[in-house]
Amino acid sequence: MHLLETAQLLEKRQINLVSLRENIDTSTATGRCFLSMMGAIHQMERELRAERASSGRASAKARGKTGGRPRTDVAKLRDAKVLYENSGKTANEVCKVVGVGRRIFFSYLAKQRETTPAKGLNQHYNAVTDSNLLLLSARH
Q: CA-CA distances (angstroms) from residue 16 to 22, 23, 64, 97?
């Protein structure tokens, strides 16, 4: 809760705020004024921090910098997929060898499955159909 809101809530309940270290007493006009000034200064500091952060982001953007973690190289992810599918290594071992994170690797695999689900189904269907043809041709 905000300092001034807390002070107003206490004042409604007829509770005076007394700070011994800063020598603030909200039962006096001077104490209430000082508390209000502290609140205003705090608000100004928050707004200045936000402005500085915003101008820093704008400056970085103008220099071509973007925030966040650098993207993982797709070639590394492809290499990891090939190694994972064609070796007896676990996903953790593959990720350590190739140098990618497990979470990113599994996200990549999931996206790959989403983009090409029909291919896997068609291969399975073709294999079943081919085996049926072989069975049919073997019967004749």
A: 15, 13, 54, 65
